[in-house]
Amino acid sequence: MDRGPAVKAAGFLVLTVISIPANLAVCSAFLCSFFAEGKLTTADIILCHLALVNLLVAFVRSIPQTLAAFGYQNLFDDLGCKLSLLCFRILRGLSISLTCLLSTYQAILIAPASSKLLAPLKHRIPKYLPHIFLCLYVFCSITSVHTILYAVSKLVNNTIPPYTFNLDYCFVRYTDYSAYLGTGLSNFWKDFVFIVLMTVMSFYIVILLYKHGKKVKSIRSSDRGSVGARAETKASRAVVTLVILYVIFFGVDNAIWLYSLTIVRVAPLLSDLRVFFSSLYTSVCPMVVIITNPKVKAKIKMTRTTKLSHSAPNTSSSV
């Protein structure tokens, strides 16, 4: 195997190996917490939903891409390609919209009670969270359905025509430049709206954290009343970290996409880089949650301790 394909295969393999167990760990931790305590916070529900979406992205995009990078061919027929790419587009839209929802809710959660715009939403978002999830599913599905029109498993004479994206295991073949440009711009603007909103919310969170930090300098760290505030501060920093990573990864993804719209034939390297960055968040996001979320850390630590206690040899002697 040449060095280029080997690096490509290794890169997608690493994403898959990290993404699946990490997202499974996050989902399992929140589910265990729910069964033990009987409830989850709104932020935890959104994070659990985000981890599930990222896990599904690994199955519909990372695994096929990894298998294709290792030389496996004909993974799907035309229908399989259409369904696979449709699911990926829907899940990708859910990933960005859920991250946006998480940053928006965290900003609302720490907003001062005097905020006339955000304060009323503090109790409405938890109340209508299932309805919000449903709306996001419907929106992402409707705006992704065009994918089934252009996805195919094989090309005529194995030649890549103009306005075609090569994903190795499937091809996205647009009929003409109008469809190529129109689809690309619609996808970009849909992502751009969510990115702008989550960026604005993250800046707002940073400003609130800065103001809060100045106020609590004179408060003793042992003050019991500040425990909840410190927890919210840590959660807010974690959310800002997720948003920054999302903006970077999907910023690169969309930058490559926009550049691709200006050329007739997309180089394989550009397609590979775009696919890599569009999947990178699914691996990094659960790692950030595992590191920063106390509930997830506690559950994973408890699981490890239990496994070690069961695997340890019985050193007691019978008399």
Describe the overall structure.
By secondary structure, the chain is mainly alpha-helical. It is 73% helix and 3% strand. The chain has helices at 3-37, 42-69, 78-110, 121-127, 129-142, 177-215, 227-260, 268-292, 294-311, and strands spanning 151-152, 164-166, 171-173. It has a three-stranded antiparallel beta sheet with strand order 1-3-2.
Features:
disordered C terminus; mainly alpha; 319 residues; 9 helices; 3-stranded antiparallel beta sheet; 3% strand
Low-confidence stretches: 315-319
Largest sheet: 3 strands, antiparallel
Fraction of residues in H or I helices: over 70%
Give me the number of helical elements.
Answer: 9
Distance between the termini: 62 Å
User: What is the N-to-C order of secondary-structure elements (H for helix, E for strand)?
Assistant: HHHHHEEEHHHH
Beta content comes to under 5%
Mean pLDDT: 84
Cα-atom radius of gyration? 22 Å
Report the count of strand segments: 3
The order of strands across the largest sheet is 1-3-2
Structural class: mainly alpha
